[in-house]
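TL;DR need structure tokens for one chain.
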Amino acid sequence: MTRWAVLFPLAAALGCSSLDEAEGGVVALELRVPSPATLEVGETLQLSVRPLNSDGDSVAAAVTWLTPGDVVTVDQTGLVTGVAPGTGQVQARVGSLTSGLVSVGVLARADTLIIVGDSIFTVPLGQSVSPALVVRLESFAPVGPVESRPVVYAVVTPVQEVPTRVQLAGGVLVDTLVTAADGTIGTVTLDRVAGVTGPDSAVVEVRATRTRGAAVPGSGQRFIVRFE
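>> reply
TL;DR here they are.
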């Protein structure tokens, strides 16, 4: 569900309530901003504004959208596009009346989820823990690792059963962890549960999503762990 932050910023200039009729009698701007106001490079975020007169009624007035800097761009419908990582600012203007600056956070785009090293492991008899199941999130805009972003690990085979025969480190079947500064997660293992006859093999799936909900390419890849 989309949440909205509604702002009623007045112009900093004195006399904003004395706009002439040619400017429609606008004295305030009701700015609507999705929450959280965060997107990735290349993603978009739709802002909207409602010009108001002194009675609080909507006014049909031409709105101009502005943005300083080069972190985001905004078109004249209020559609914001992330251009570079950082914090962009956007404001609306009607005549001489301008809204306050709205901050929009822009993150590096998560372009690919990669399995680092092997994706198939064998756990010898007498051992119960697999090697680390390592993944990395990378961006092409700008090129480099993507840190502090969630990646989901899920045991998909065997299907959830009682008693559980394998589990991720921490005793769970699904776990969400965030990437380190180098874009990796290297702490996840698959463990054979003590006292229970283990399966011949198990499968762990990894996935990640972008800030607006799209799956990161590479999501759905799987580790296969064989138990001797």
